[in-house]
Write the C-alpha cells for this entry.
Amino acid sequence: MNIFFGAVSLAQAGQFEDMRAAVEKLFAFPASVLAGTDGAMPCGYISDGGVVLGKAAEGDDYLVYLGFLQRPLPGWDAGSPVDDPDHTAAYLLSRYREHGAGFLEGVHGQYALAIHDGSVSKLMLACDPGGYRRLFYRYRDGNLVYGTSLAALSAGAGLAIDRSMEDFLLGFEFLPWNRTVYDGVSSLAAGTLLEFSADGLTTRQLATPAPSGSKMTAADEDAVIASLEEEFMGTVGQLCPTDKRVAVLLGGFDSALIAAALVRLGKEVETFTFRYADERFNQAYTDMLAEHLGTTHTWVDIGPEELGKTIPDYALLFNQPVGQMHYVLHTALACSAIRQKGYLHCLTGDGCDEVFLGYPTVHRRAQLFNRLGHLPKPAVSALLYLFHGYFFEKRLGHVYRLGRNFITILGRKMPVRNHICHRVFDGISLDRLRTGAAPAQEKDIEQMLQELAAGLESMSSVRLAYHGKSMVGLNRNKVEGCSAVSGLSLQSPFQHRNLTRFARSLPDALLRPEKKTRSAVTGKYVLMEMAERSGLLPAGIIYQKKASPVTAPVDYWYMDSLKAVMLDAVRDLPFEYDPEYVEDLLRHKLAEDVFRKHVGIGHYASHAISLLASYASFARYGNTGDIHGGVSGK
C-alpha cells in the first residue's frame, strides 16, 4: 500500500502521533515520517517500494508525493520521471526552492503532494490540474488533517458519515463539488495549492500546463490520421520508463493499440487481463494479439473466492462508493499480480472512450434522448405514481428501476437531460430501502443536476453525454486506488494532455461519422483508421466487438456463493434498512437475465447491491458511534 497522511495543529499536541498509530493499526504496516526541525508539521507515509510514492528532504524542508509526473517537464534531466520517485521528489523540491509557490507551473502528471517550508513554518498541499489524484482534508478549529486515503483520515480523526447528500450519492455514484462521504472532509479541488500556517488556511489555483502537442484546425481525414499517428506514438514514448519491460493491462482495442505502440518503440511487453471459469466473460483475441506482436499474455484468474476476500475492505483500497465494485477490485487484483511478476510500470487504455467518443451505450442513449419529446411535469408525476408500488420492482429489479429513471429523464430539458443519466436508486427505491427517517438533504436532486449542467448549453448532445459520464469518476477511482495498492505507475496515453487536447479538437464527425463504417458501433473512427493504416494492429483486433471491462459473471456470484458476503457487508450501512428489500436485490430475475444478454454491454445488473456494499464499507471505517443502522423490518 502507498499513502501519505498528516495532522497538524498550531495549538493541539499529539494529534499526529494518534493518527499515525491509528493508520498503522488500520493498514497493519509501519509508517515512516518526514518533519521539519524538532518534528514540526510531520507527514506520515506508507510505501511498499513501488514507484508511485516519492519523498525528499533538504534542510528543514521536505516533500512527499503520490502518483507520477509525465514528460515533457520544465528543467527535467535525462531519463523518465517514473524511473525513480525519490529523484522526482527532489526535482519538485528543488523547483519549489527556486520558484516558490509557482513551482508546479508547467508540471503535468497525476499527483497529490505535501511540501513543508521550514523557513516560514508552512505546510502546502497540492493535486494535479486534471484531478486524476485526490487529496482529502478537513480543517476545523485550527486543526488540519489530510491524506490520500479517506480510510486513513477516518481512522486518524474519528470521522462520521455525512448523509446530507446521500440521496444523490446512492443515485449517481459520486458526490459533486469536492464533497466526500465523511463529515467535513473535502477533496482538494483539482489544480489547487492549499497553504497552512499561523495565518490560517489559504488556497490558490495552479496554472494549467499548456499542451506541447498539436491541435487540428482542419477536418481533412487523411491529414488528421497522419497527425494522430505521430501524436499517439510520441505520447506513448513520453510515458515510457527507461526500464525495457512494461506491462499492459489489456481490455480490448484501446489497450491492444498501446501494446503495439510499445513494441514498435522497442519495449518488451507482457499483457495481463482477468480470466473467469466461465469462458463467455473472458477477453477475446488475446492469443491473436500476442502472436501478432510477439509478446506474452498472462491471465489473472479471478473467482468468487478472490473477490469475496476484498469486498469487506473496499474502503481501505478505494475512495469512492461505486456500482461496479467488482470491476475496480478485479483490477486491483490484476495489478497486484503484475507487481508480483516484477513489473513496476503498466500502461492502460483508460480515458480513450471518453475523449474519442467510445462507450456505445452512452452514445445510443444520447441519440435517443435527443430525439424524444419532452414530458410535462404532470405527466411525469402521473407515470411515476402508477409505477410507485413495489410489486414490479420486486420482480423486474434493475430493469424496472431503469424504466422509472427513463420516465424521469423525459421530464428534463437540455442540457440536463443528456448530461448525467445513469441512476441506481431513485427516491421511490430509497423510501423502500431505508426504514428510518430519511436524512435531510442539503439540496434537491433536480436542482443539483441543473447546477452541474450549467454552462454546458453550447456543448453538442453527444459530447454532453460523455462529459456527464466522466463526472462519475469510475476510471479515476480505479486507477487512483489500484496504483496506490500495487505501487505500479498506471498510466494511459489517452489521459496525457497532448493526446487529450488533440482528440478534443476533432469534430464529432471524425470520431463518430454519420456514414456507415466498420467502427460505427464503437466510435473512435479516426483512431481505428490510424491503427489499421499504420499497421500497428490487424483489422480483426481493431474491429473486434466492443466488450465492457465491467463484464464478469459476478451477478451470479452475488446471488449464490457470495450472497452471505454481500449481506454481511451491507450491515454496516449508516441507516436502518429493510432486509427483505436487500434480499430481493440478490434474487434471480428473468428480466435481468434478458437485460444482461440483450441490452447491457457489461452483462451486469448488480449496481444496486454493489453501491450499497461499497458505501457501507466507508461507514464501517468511520466513527461508528450511533451511525450504523443495520437491518430493520418494514
Residues 624-629 have pLDDT under 50 and may be disordered. The radius of gyration is 24 Å.
